[in-house]
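Forum > Structural Biology > Help requests

Title: Can anyone predict the 3D structure of Multicopper oxidase domain-containing protein?

Hi all, first post here. I have the sequence for Multicopper oxidase domain-containing protein but no way to get a structure on my laptop. I'd be grateful if someone could post the structure tokens.
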Amino acid sequence: MKRRSFIAGSMAAIAAPGLVGRVRAQPVFGGQLPIPPLMEVGEESGNRLDAIEGTHAFIEGEQAQTLGWSQDHLGPTLRMRRGRTARLTIGNRLESEITSHWHGLHVPGWLDGGPQSLIASGRNIEQALDIDQPAGTFWYHSHPHGRTGDQVYRGLAGLLLIEDDRADTSVLPSAYGVDDIPLIIQDKAFTRRGNLQYDDGGMAAMQGFRGDRIAVNGALEPVAHVPQGLVRFRLLNASNARVYVLSFDDGRRFHQIASDAGLLPAPVSRSQLQLAPAERAEILVDFSNGAEARLVSQDVPVQMMGGMMGGGMMGGGSDLEVLKVVVGGSRPATVSELPQEFSGAYLPVFGEPVRRREFRLNMMMGMGMMRAMFGGRPTFGINGQAYDMGRIDQQLRRGETEIWEISADMMSHPFHVHGTSFQVLTQNGISVDFAETGMKDVVWIENSAEILVRFDHPATPEAPYMYHCHILEHEDSGMMGQFTVS
Ligand SMILES: [Cu+2]
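Reply #1:
Sure, ran it for you. Structure tokens for Multicopper oxidase domain-containing protein below:
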């Protein structure tokens, strides 16, 4: 038997249905969708975020031990404006170290909050982020090496919105929490007593940890009340490993208006939308007929490489309930007509590429796979090397455009690059239409992809930028590299 098929067979044997990601057949829609409080972050001082421990009742009458930013679970939505400096203090009231990573923001390495920028227990750091990039939906989360999965899963994550005069917000729903609604989607698993369950060894490390319940803004399968008209949802997949393919149960179409890094050139009509971990999308949904709808997701199985797993899939089941949307908000909708195009769209502007780099996301790393089969933590890597905080993997020049070719081992991986936004050129050898994808900072690697990338800010060896798989258990097990920009 060849080594590859032996390992694939062994993975299949320990991936029997029921171990990971099994979905309840009949979830009951819970309470009202919570809306994270909005924090305007500008040049004035006084804004702060503290990582704290809390308790949170996902399940009525049961308390889960959670983490949050200045609240029991998750954090406030930070709103920043292009052309301004965003000042805030980050405090760590936990016993373990954290970082504050600004996912998608174009800031220098020393402000990026990567694994080198640890905030020790009891300490504060001051941040001044010069915001200069188009409007969009971003997020922030802790990023210490080896513990990102655990901390994000328990709640050290929040949304970050950038506003920009050039983005034509007047034609888009923009009343926060009314017709412009944030949806932080995470899957959770619970113990019998309602506490959060988490595992980053063995099978969970290989497939990525997946829960069987869907939390939106920290509430399980909640209900959102929306005005009768066009409603904008800002979707963030803040799950550790789960991929969603979202659609409405009544089959209604909707328009995607933004992806990871900002507005698309024009709305794209869709009936479903795939969101891999860390990806964002903004959609406009028409509720003018007053009918309620359920946002559901396919229970996307872990996608193994074609042929290796027979059907190429494992796991999977019936649809997951995400959110029920009921028409009848307390305020009227502000927008009734779909815009035809966006003046504030984030268009790609790149020079001629001067270099090509290749990145192979590896799961086959010596004895690592064997360790995982016995419940331990595997070792993953990129280009044959597991992440090492003391090693700089790539050195880039500021302002130079490059083509990065990323390919995947064994299963599909969401590849994230810090410090910039990029254009996806090809996926699996097929060219990608920019109008459909827009500017990105996460790209889904089934087999391979090519991206066009450039960095306009510096990153030194003391605080380099990261590239990594955003399946957090893969990242924590070494599927990450780091680079400088000078
Ligand atoms: Cu991965």
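The chain has three domains: 3-163, 180-327, 355-485. Residues 361, 413, 469, 471, 474, 479 surround copper (II) ion (CB under 6 Å).
Shout if anything looks off.
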